[in-house]
Design goal:
Blueprint (H helix, E strand, L loop, with lengths): L2 H36 L3 H12 L1 E3 L2 E3 L2 H9 L3 E6 L5 E4 L13 H9 L1 E2 L2 E7 L3 E6 L15 H5 L1 H42 L13 H55 L5 H31 L8 E4 H14 L6 E5 L9 E4 L1 H17 L5 E10 L2 E8 L6 H9 L5 E2 L6 E2 L2 H12 L3 E6 L5 E8 L3
Parallel strand pairs: 9-11
Antiparallel strand pairs: 1-2, 3-4, 3-7, 5-6, 6-7, 8-10, 11-12, 12-16, 13-14, 15-16
Amino acid sequence: MKSVPKLIRRFVGIMLLSVVFLIILNFALLAVYTLDQASNSSPWTTAQEVADDLSPKENGYMLSEKKALELQKENVWAIFIDNATMKVVWQTDHLPQTVPLSYTVSDIAGLTRGYIDGYPTFTGEAENGLVVLGYPKDRFWKHMWPSWDYHFIANLPKTILSVLAINLAVIFLIYVIANARLLKSVKPIVGGIQALSANEAVHIREKGVLSELAVNLNKTSDILQTQSRQLRKRETARANWIAGVSHDIRTPLSMVMGYAGQLESDRQLSGDHRQKAAVIVRQSKRIRNLINDLNLASKLEYNMQPVKRERQNLIAIIRQVAADFLNMNIEETYTIEWETDETLTSCTANVDKDLIKRAVSNLIQNSMNHNRKGCRIFIRVMAKDHICTVIVADDGTGATDEQIEKLNHSPHYMVCDEETTEQRHGLGLLIVKQIVFVHDGTMLIKHSEYGGLEVDLRLPMSM
């Protein structure tokens, strides 16, 4: 069952693609977020800019108005700690009262990497001291101990790949476990569908994730099996009916033909009565032939006709059929021409000799029946690519493209000629098609190169 592994591969492929997509998406979002956070390095830059902008004056220090407005807009306070006294010698307005005005070396170290009373602080170096900027408490979070083990940083790529591999394995394991029940339910469903296509009975356990689908498949199988049994019953009844009618008609028909034949040859009757008797004989023969055709078609359709396939030379068989027709003293308006290449002496196939004769005879008779004014009939046998092709063509009235399309694809050949009200049953072509089918061959009806109709019978050659 190839479909279940294919389904599993599809599920796994979708999962892997999803994981890869999520990883790429996460890296992209991380990059965007990191770029957005890159602007957070600006406090250090701003602190240095304030230190560079701060200039001494007679009674202290002065900051340019532009930089002062920038700090005020960001709600940032600033102080300047003198190197010599370690005290604040300059400050901005609105300095929080909790901010100390004198510092020790340890205080300087603490505020450089951390906070003053919860305010995140950033420093900038001036010529005679240190500028400290204090931002709102909810503006930044500072890492107090920004140091990492050297080996941890050196092995970080390997660690990330290992963690990623473990994550993928865990995700795959979770996926397989989560879908195990689904895959277990899918397998019998797929098997049931395949069995339905083969017209086999299906009964799937109605449990699991796909229990509802299993119920519907079981119902469908029951319906199809019931229909199949009814169809076989009808077909058997039909075949038996045809066989019974054929058998029951033969005896009275033989009597009708016998008595009509006697009347036709009775010289004491008038010519008009003998002519009527001849019509009865002729039509009785047609009925007999029709019954034989129906019986043979029914047997072939339901595989009731024994097929005795033997290695035969098709050229010899077809040549014998053509000779039999010529020996029947057919009307002069019909001629049969043998066009098989004389260099081709053998074209062997495993066939039932009598059935093949019947098929070719039907084709020749079909050309005569549909060309009442006469025609030339061409017979040819060809061998190519391990295929024996028997061709029967004529230069008669032929058929339209639409009619040929129907003849090639219709399951029967019930037609009514336009030039007569007499319906032709068309069983001759149907029987030919069935005979070719039981020999594993094909039949093709097409326009003849001579202007009429052509039928090609293609049979596999025997090795």
